[in-house]
Amino acid sequence: MRAFVLVTSLSLSLYGCVRSDKVVCGDVVCPGGTHCGPANECVPDACGNDRIDGIEECDGDDSIDRETLRCTDYGFYKGGPLTCSETCVVDTSQCSETCGDYTINGPERCDGMPPTGLACADFGFDVGTIGCASSCTPEFGFCSNLGWQLVPGGADDELYAVYLAAPSTGVAVGRAGEIIAAVDGVWLPVTQTVTTDDLNAIAATADGIFAVGNNGTILRYDGVAVTTMASPTTQHLRGVSGGAPGAFAVGDNGTILRFDGTSWASMPSPVTTDLYAVHVNEGRAFAVGESGTILQLQASGWTQLTPANLPAVTYYAVHVFADAVIVSGGLTTLARIQGNTATVANRPVPDVRGDVELRGLWAASATDIYAAGGGGLVVHWGNTSHVTKQDTPTNRTIFGLASAGDRIVGVTRGGSVIAFNGTSRHVQQPTDFELYAVYTDAVQTVAAGRVLLRARSSDGWWDETAMPANLLPAADAVRSVFPIGNDIYLGSRTLGLFKSIAGGTPTNVSAAAVNGLWATSSPLRIVTVGAGIIESTDGTSFSQTTTTTAHGANMLRGVWAAPDGVWYAVGDNGVVLRRAPSDVWTAMSSNTTKHLLAVWGTAADDVFAVGELGTIIHWDGSRWRQHYSGVAENLVSISGNTHSDVFVTGTSFTRLHYDGISWSRMAAYELESPAAATFRGTTYYVAGKLIERTDRVMANGAEVRCQDPFDNNAKDGTNCDDPTCKDELQCRLGGACETLERVTCETSALATSTYSGVARITDLPCLDHSTPGPEASFRYVAMTSGEVTVAIEDATHQLDLVVTDGEAGHCVLQTCRPAIASGDRQSVTFTATAGRMYYIVVDGPVGIGAPFTLSVACM
Q1: Contact status, residue 791 vs residue 827, Cβ threshold 8 Å
Q2: Which pLDDT belongs to residue 1?
Q3: From its phi and psi, is residue 213 left (phi > 0), alpha (psi between -120 and 50) or beta?
Q4: What is the pTM for the complete model shown?
Q5: In DSSP terms, which residues pair with 258 in a beta bridge?
């Protein structure tokens, strides 16, 4: 009814200059023939004559057809009967249970608050924070997946090649002239039929976008229209590329064409074998084809190369750099050609047949290469001798790969489009022995349990070292591991500390039981915790440095050192110890009595500790403060890249991620209670006999994905915390606050606001408690300098009001101003600076969703 009144009012206002019978009821202009009701509503003058006239919904109870009109027609699930009010509006006061009453009823999955105990991971996503939509159904806007994913849209037939103009914009071509285009990431067919010939390749050049196909077909898009070009051949064309020194197309029987800016002409070819791909880059042009054919364009024309060590298989793709040429082809062959010598990636790839044809190829550099082919296979080849397999959502042949920004897409035999969001995941079983601990840094990765594994390189291949015979029967074996230089230290809860020199068989160096282990190299210090703290400064002799005066009878469980030499140890009953350089271990007040099982941080004033029953606490340099984890399982391991990119694991397959704003539960796959270690975008999880590894493509200096949950460049923060993202629309509107409304000094009172959606801000630094309920947020830009008072009226007395300084474009991590409460009213008064942005956040504890009234007043 309200919406109808507003529309009617707007319509009548157009005629305000000629009508004199309008009625103003509060802020509503009512039409003629009405008067103002007790709540400033428009009441028809004829209301009460038992006949529906004008804008009346009803007139008398008998005017309501109760056979066809029920409470359910007005959004309720129960109740009735419907009656007619004195103002001739249908009265639903006897109806009950509806979406928006903050109680889950009827078919609702949630109402105001997110579904209790559920996360994005419960709905097929890998990571993210779930919310409650206005329709009382789960909200998935902050959920996302890792690795390769199917993207919306696609084709009805096979797709052979793809080109990206931007991460979410591109064109793909395929069988029988199939052309699909992506706009905002959705791939839809192009209705214009240009050809019925198969289109095998597409590329952008200085002269436009060219697509080539069977029977010599050449299409050109010049930014205005797609046209068919005259072709000097009827041979099937398989590849196209362009740039200095020109645009080229290649095909069957050695066909090579060149575009001179006006037309295509044939070029002399040194071979008669079929050519499948050509690539022009860095002023160089190469073509590849069957039987190991490699061609290079030189001043005298195309010449054939025979690089040493290169297998004579059919090559389907080529990518050219100034110092290397990358080729992929049959028998899972991936090679790097430098000069006249080829380096072939070692095979076999784990869990991959050796006869797969690698048809798609994309490379960011000569040491960052992706190849794809039969059975949905995607492999990655870095600066190592081995390639690693990546999980994909398809088992169809992937024919083409393309990239824009940091997004890679592939097209498949089934007409699907898959996209890589920068994170790959794969699982290995490198040993037949159980693994319990893992550590990784810029130097090496080691894992241990009933065996010691040492990664030969970052490609996931491992060497195995035997453990001492007396260690294998131990019920817990090795539970902590830490490398220093070429030496590796391993901690056992029953047999003490062991040392492996240069990867050799470990020998015992300390009999004191080890629950946690950490070490620094400069200065050298190895620290273990258990019943006390055992330390060594030479790596050989160990002695106890604490007594029970620091931690009583409480067992210590974890230890970590900040880069500046400040150490932290945690243990049972909330014990936290701290030692500054050249100082002694002293106890801290941790704000919890729960057992703490692990500790990690980024700096001496940015430390996380985790423990039993979902406990997470954070040290900011002045106090330990509890974070809301959303889980009740014991949390056993923590590691991360930055403050806004932290990973935690726990019992019952629990896995959490912190993005600097809130903790979200991740999909845990098949690893139960794994240990975790993270460095520069690579995270290892070990449990049982398995090692799971996730790799992120780390952007060079820029947070290029401003809406995913990760700190993609491992610096400056996640998404809106990173200055790179400050101009993104999401960040200009408040980032995590997801600001929906802008308020001004003229907004003296705001209509009642609902408290629902996604809980993105679980911890406001200026509050001493967590606020994991969905927040409401508003944006205020000061037009003039002066005093501003923001207030809310909250009948529940449980909502928090905070005003933050949004100068950096993010509403959470700036200066906080918490409210001063007075009865139902809470207020914040601050001095605003003209032109500066401020964010108003209304939040609350778990399970609290409530309406409130907001007001803004300026002096």
Answers
A1: yes
A2: 25
A3: beta
A4: 0.78
A5: 248, 265
